[in-house]
């Protein structure tokens, strides 16, 4: 069968179940712990903060396949299946014998893969009879995706947006408001924690950790509200498995056998979603793949972090997670890939990495933008800075093949588009972008404050 350059599956080939890779892991990811008692968090405890069905998914390490509700499949059909594209022009330009494919998740208004989980989380909130949900957003992709999902199900959506992004990315904010979300710059005077932080640090431009604390406070204190999160959690990886399942179906259909699968890693949701079904085959001994997580050199959780229990937020209101972490007090430099500036990592991916089943690399932002520019000029799509981390390593791998003559097949996740990141592109185009890499002392100082578990 001839392989088309853009593989679109038929609607009836879309997955009807999500795949839970934890079911096939011998070493399960460590459980979330109650931050006060250090005992495994129970369903009842988690259900105060999260929707009940989502809390169940969070704790489920045994069920391999979970049905995707009809309503969610219906929404997925508006923008899925997403294409698996042969980067033919890029291969030719690089002169590599490698075959490069990318799974493109930027074909929806939110511009990233985050909608795959946003719609699932909004659905379960609606089904539970809630009035609305609260969340935080840094760069704005998650807040946008959640706003779209809440509009679809008629849910109220309260987004705490890190103040510096709120001011610097007014268009992201307006997209959210267009979808009906209530967007508050964080820290704000609408919450106790926000007022406390404003008193302590007047003039602060905010942080993700603070925004999480505000969102959780509002969810817990408001009748009929729960808090939702766009990455890191097991439930998010589960929903994002739709990316990997589609990729696998497309590969199997056309006899494509990936050797190397690459994704950028912020909290780990797109990478986890892309590799999960392939990892399942590897864990069951049915096939072998090389998996590469790519992170920014400015926020190197896998490559320089420690595998330990840590707080998920700077406000320390969430349960503790065992993960590769730089410490919850780690403030990454102002890297332009906002979606990759998280101090920790998915606990599932952390366990897989610790078991040697995935590898990780860190890359510097100027080299990432050079790859982004090259990709945009050759393949046409203007990539998000986050996604461009994967492009960087895909190109590096393809260039290695040019030296060795190896005809390997590379698949990478192109998680989104970069239209709201033009200030970053401007810096790069003007030659004003710099690379900041934290020193060992900085990381050690932050890791010294890990909770004693
Ligand atoms: C949020 C985001 C990421 C990183 O988040 P993960 O949970 O690690 O996938 C990557 N790419 C884009 C476009 C994003 O919006």
SSE layout and pairing:
Elements: E1 6-7, E2 17-19, H1 43-49, H2 52-59, E3 65-67, H3 70-79, E4 84-86, H4 88-94, E5 99-104, H5 115-127, E6 132-137, H6 141-153, E7 156-162, H7 163-168, H8 170-178, E8 182-186, H9 192-200, H10 208-221, E9 225-227, H11 234-254, E10 260-264, H12 269-283, E11 290-296, H13 301-304, E12 306-311, E13 320-325, H14 347-354, E14 359-363, H15 365-379, H16 385-404, E15 409-414, H17 422-429, H18 440-447
Parallel strand pairs: 5-15, 6-7, 6-9, 7-8, 10-11, 10-15, 11-14
Antiparallel strand pairs: 1-4, 2-3, 4-5, 12-13
Helix pairs in contact: 1-2, 3-5, 5-6, 6-8, 9-10, 11-12, 15-16
The chain binds pyridoxal-5'-phosphate.
Say what the CATH topology of the largest domain is: Rossmann fold
Name the beta content range. Answer: 15-25%
Radius of gyration: 21 Å
Mean pLDDT: 95
**Small ligands present:** pyridoxal-5'-phosphate
What would CATH call the architecture of the largest domain?
A: 3-Layer(aba) Sandwich
Distance between the termini: 55 Å
Helix vs. strand class: alpha/beta
The number of domains? 2
Largest sheet: 7 strands, mixed
Helix content: 40-55%
The number of helical segments is 18
């Amino acid at each position: 069968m001839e392989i088309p350059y853009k593989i679109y599956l038929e609607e009836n080939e879309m997955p009807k179940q999500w795949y839970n890779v934890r079911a096939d892991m011998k070493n399960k990811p460590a459980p979330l712990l109650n931050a006060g008692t250090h005992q495994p968090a129970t369903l009842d405890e988690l259900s105060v903060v999260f929707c009940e069905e989502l809390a169940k998914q969070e704790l489920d390490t045994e069920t391999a396949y979970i049905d995707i509700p009809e309503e969610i499949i219906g929404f997925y059909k508006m923008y899925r299946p997403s294409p698996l594209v042969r980067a033919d022009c890029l291969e030719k330009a690089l002169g590599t014998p490698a075959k490069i494919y990318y799974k493109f998740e930027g074909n929806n208004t939110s511009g990233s893969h985050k909608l795959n989980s946003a719609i699932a989380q909004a659905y379960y909130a609606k089904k539970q009879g809630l009035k609305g949900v609260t969340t935080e957003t840094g760069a704005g992709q998650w807040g946008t995706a959640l706003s779209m999902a809440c509009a679809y199900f008629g849910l109220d959506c309260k987004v705490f947006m890190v103040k510096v992004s709120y001011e610097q990315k007014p268009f992201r904010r307006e997209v959210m408001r267009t979808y009906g979300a209530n967007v508050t710059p964080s820290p704000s005077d609408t919450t106790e924690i926000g007022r406390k932080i404003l008193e302590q640090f007047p003039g602060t431009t905010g942080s993700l950790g603070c925004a999480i604390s505000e969102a959780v406070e509002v969810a817990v204190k408001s009748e009929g509200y729960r808090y939702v999160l766009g990455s890191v959690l097991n439930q998010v990886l589960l929903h994002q498995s739709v990316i990997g399942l589609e990729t696998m179906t497309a590969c199997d259909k056309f006899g494509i056998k990936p050797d190397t699968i690459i994704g950028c890693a912020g909290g780990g949701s797109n990478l986890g979603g892309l590799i999960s079904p392939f990892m399942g085959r590897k864990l069951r001994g049915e096939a072998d793949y090389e998996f590469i997580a790519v992170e920014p050199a400015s926020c190197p959780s896998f490559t320089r972090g420690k595998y330990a229990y840590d707080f998920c937020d700077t406000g320390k209101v969430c349960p503790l997670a065992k993960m590769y972490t730089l410490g919850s007090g780690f403030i990454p430099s102002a890297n332009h890939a906002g979606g990759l500036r998280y101090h920790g990592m998915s606990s599932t991916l952390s366990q897989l990495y610790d078991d040697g089943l995935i590898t990780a690399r860190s890359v510097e932002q100027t080299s990432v933008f050079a790859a982004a520019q090259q990709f945009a000029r050759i393949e046409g799509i203007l990539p998000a800075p986050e996604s461009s981390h994967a492009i960087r390593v895909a190109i590096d791998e393809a260039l290695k093949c040019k030296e060795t003559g190896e005809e390997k097949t590379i698949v990478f996740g192109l998680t989104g588009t970069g239209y709201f990141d033009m200030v970053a592109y401007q810096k790069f185009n003007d030659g004003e972008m710099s690379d900041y890499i934290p020193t060992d002392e900085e990381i050690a100082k932050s890791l010294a404050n890990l909770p004693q578990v």
